[in-house]
Specification:
There is one protein chain. With 371 residues, this protein is an all-alpha fold. It is built from 20 helices and two strands. A hairpin with a 2-residue loop joins strand 1 and strand 2 (144-145). Helix 9 (171-181) runs parallel beside helix 12 (209-222), helix 13 (227-251) runs antiparallel to helix 14 and helix 14 packs parallel to helix 17. The longest helix has 26 residues, at 59-84. It is elongated and about 85 Å long. Belongs to the Mo25 family. This is MO25-like protein.
Length: 371
């Protein structure tokens, strides 16, 4: 590619390391993409081997370790430059391919090392690492998403990322990394089928808003991205999932943001075509209907509107169980009074007005049927 910033090699680059060891300050050329990865691996191995060497080390040894840390940050930034370009030149496809191939090379632990060592890096380098790993999830080598294959063979890395939620200082970074990994169906399936998913309902309660919102973003990605895997998950885990969802994200959520986002997510789940069986089951439950009717009484207009979009599914269900029809009929006058002046948060929301008209019509039909 014209203007490529990085020397692309076609031969095996394992011998390239010798050149950069010898060159020192007088290097004649930059490292190739594979050499950059190899150098990061060497630095990480050295630092991980020496950082806990004890407090009795000499200042000279400490200075060397500090130098390696600085060099590591620079080399990670070099990887980022290869993958994203420098703002003036676009990334070189061949360079990206070679970097990706070396990064995910069999028996290479660089992905694992970066994740484990992430808490020890400065904030700027942590951001660089998350951007590098995010980009690598999308890179293909010979038409293969090698990151997906790597995660399938190293699924314990997802356990490590989940454990990061226990550390408030790195929770957002680990959550971002996890969200990038679950772009791959094999990784998402692993998390969904593990006990980790249950932990999200507690992690979403974090008092720190940034952590809370990022965790929720990852949780939403897990239960919406891969349609067939998610549908299979719901068919096997319906009871406990929606019991936790209703209890912790809707009923007991004191946070306005979480409650509103949770109701929106519930609507998205139920309206997804691949979750048709889940929707039928959900809107056939009188307990769920009561929850939604109570949400219509919330002080927040925005939450009322979000709740309406789920409530209408109960009303417009053509196969309503008798107990659902009975509850709607018993409360018809209250519902009709409420809906009379009920409007969307947005002005001139024709879709909302049409939906409200259908709901009112159906409730009136129920009243006529009962005579």
């Amino acid at each position: 590619m014209a203007g490529c910033l990085w020397p692309c090699v076609t031969a095996d680059a394992d011998g390239g390391g010798a050149g950069h060891k010898k060159g020192g300050l007088f290097r004649s050329k930059p490292r190739t993409p594979p050499e950059v990865v190899q150098h990061v691996r060497e630095l990480l191995t050295y630092i991980l081997d020496h950082k806990d060497a004890g407090g009795g080390g000499s200042s000279k040894r400490d200075a060397k370790l500090e130098h390696k840390m600085i060099e590591l940050s620079k080399s990670i930034k070099d990887m980022k430059g290869i993958l994203y370009g420098d703002g003036e030149e676009d990334p070189c496809d061949e360079a990206c391919k070679q970097l990706t191939k070396e990064f995910f090379k069999k028996n290479s632990d660089i992905f694992r090392q970066l994740i484990i060592f992430l808490p020890q890096l400065d904030l700027e380098t942590q951001k660089d690492v998350t951007q590098v790993i995010a980009n690598l999830q999308r890179q293909k080598v010979d038409s293969r998403l090698v990151a997906s294959e790597y995660l399938e063979a190293n699924s314990d890395l997802l356990d490590i990322l989940m454990s990061g939620y226990e550390n408030i200082d790195i929770a957002v970074h680990y959550s971002t990394l996890l969200r990038d990994c679950i772009r791959h169906q094999v990784a998402a399936r692993y998390v969904l089928e593990s006990q980790h998913l249950k932990s999200f309902f507690d992690y979403i309660q974090f008092p720190d808003f940034n952590v809370q919102s990022d965790v929720f973003k990852t949780f939403k990605e897990l239960v919406t991205r891969h349609k067939s895997t998610v549908a299979e998950f719901f068919s096997k885990n319906y009871d406990w999932f929606f019991a936790e969802f209703n209890s912790k994200l809707i009923l007991s959520a004191s946070n306005y943001f979480i409650k509103r986002q949770a109701i929106q997510l519930l609507r998205d789940i139920l309206l997804e075509r691949s979750n048709a069986a889940v929707m039928v089951r959900y809107v056939s439950s009188k307990e769920h209907l009561i929850i939604l009717m109570n949400l219509l009484r919330e002080d927040s207009k925005a939450i009322q509107v979000e709740a309406f979009h789920v409530f209408k599914l109960f009303v417009l269900n053509k196969e309503k169980p008798p107990e659902i029809s009975a509850i709607l009929h018993t409360n018809r006058n209250k519902l009709l009074r409420f809906l009379k002046d009920f409007s969307s948060v947005e002005k001139d929301d024709k879709k909302f007005d049409a939906d409200k008209g259908r709901v009112v019509s159906e409730i009136l039909t129920l009243a006529l049927k009962s005579r």
